[in-house]
Amino acid sequence: GSPVTRMPLRVVLAYKCKEDSKYDSSLSIKVPKKYWAKEPEHLIEWFVEFYNKKFPEHKLVPEDLALADRDGKVFPKDGVMEECFSHKQEIDLIPLKELEKEADSKDDSSISIPAFQQAPRSAMTLHSEVDMENPKEFEKAEDLTESQYKTFKANHGLKSELTLKAAFRLMDICIAQYKLDRVDQVLGEIEAVCGDKDFRKDWWAKFIQMKAFCRWKQSKFKEALTLFEEMKEEVGLSSKLLENMGHTHNSLGDYKKAQDCFQQALSLVDVETELNPKTDSHKGGLYMGLGLVKKRQGNVKEGLVDLKKSLEWYKSNTGPRPHSLVAKAHMSVGHAYEDLKQWNDAALHMEMAVDIFQKTCGDDSPLTGNALGALGKVAIEMGKYEKSWEALSAAFMNEVKHDSLKVFTLFEHSSLLYRLITSIKAKGCDAKKLVPSLMTLDRALGPQMKAGLVKRDGNVGALYKSMAELAIVAQHYKLANTYLCKALTHFGEEKSFDCGKLIEECRNILTLVHDLIRKGIGH
Fold this sequence. Notes:
The chain is mostly helical. Among the domains are: 3-106, Phosphatidylinositol 3-kinase Catalytic Subunit, Chain A, domain 1 (Ubiquitin-like (UB roll)), CATH 3.10.20; 131-236, Serine Threonine Protein Phosphatase 5, Tetratricopeptide repeat, CATH 1.25.40; 398-523. The chain has helices spanning 3-6, 33-38, 41-54, 96-106, 135-156, 161-176, 180-194, 200-217, 221-235, 239-251, 255-275, 283-296, 300-317, 324-339, 343-360, 366-381, 385-399, 407-422, 435-450, 458-473, 477-493, 500-518, and strands at 8-15, 25-32, 65-68, 90-95.
């Protein structure tokens, strides 16, 4: 920026305690204009950190305070124009409760309580994540929080409440968008501090929970379960922790333990609500968990009853706007109808889920990709092949960008796309549009195998073979040659399964591909 925007300003922050004047305090600091003009919440957080060290018996909470000038005018927290206090160096910090009382007493519509732009809270259960009602705004929140975290880390170090709060806000946002690599990076940076004796009491349980959620979304369910067990030792049992453990047991195929967890959680949640009416109830996730367990045990119709309860609970408890949890419930109901071969009902719920995911999470979210893939498979069963191609190709283009690639899902969808082109000969299929995604997937597989996110085995070979087949129908024969060679490498490394037939098929296809390349056909 210009020298003017870089110029520091001496700001005096003042707080007056109405209950006891001995708790009055002020803080004089030099602040670069870029912070007080664009990110004024830093002023409150810096003051609160200073104040709470000075008066540990009378702590303030940043979220409960607002910035105001000496005339009592409240500054908006999500962006202060420079004119607001370019000529005012003294700023008051006013408790929001006082503003609310003043508004009530005056009944004046001109008095506005500032709507603070909060970073999302930590998801307490695997099915109570932050809902991204506006993906673009969520991206802005991520950029802002990333900037805050880096600034606090540089100015205060990692051993700071401000830095840790920013770190967890950033991870909340990233994990909701399945940006798991970034979550892993931040976890690695703050692990030692969260486990430090001076910080462990307030931060270690939060650290374990975030790490468990990250591992769960990376499909590392055994590691996630170990972390949830550690969390139980740290904070004790709760309905939300039981729900998380139930979903994890379910993913591991231990259905009896999963059902026990969900039933115990349903009993406990009523007790918790009775003891604390303000407790955030989460019966929707528990009904969903029970329904999924019953479905996977073969009791699909019985499970569908619980899944419908989950859907109705989420519809009733998430407000009038679209919500990703409602979409998740629609998907669970849709999959149950899919198991019952009631294709129309399955497609209906999946279409509603896709629409909600696109509105709340965006086109690039794994939730959107998973829903599109499921809808594409159902559309094949219904004979709606053009619709199937549209959904499956969109799903494939989405899935290749994930931080944690799902090899089997990618193989299944690429195989179905190949079948739609070659066997079914569906209208509207254009394999050339998949080529950029094939190249993206190829670039991502190597690093993810190296990082241990993708297991290096014959399954990767099968995926490369299916990628080669799509490249061939797109007439990109040099790409197909590359993918077939990689497939042969992975098939050769597989020791637990005889890949002889697959190796022979790859070699036969390679012969044809080499011939086409020599003739100068295609790309």
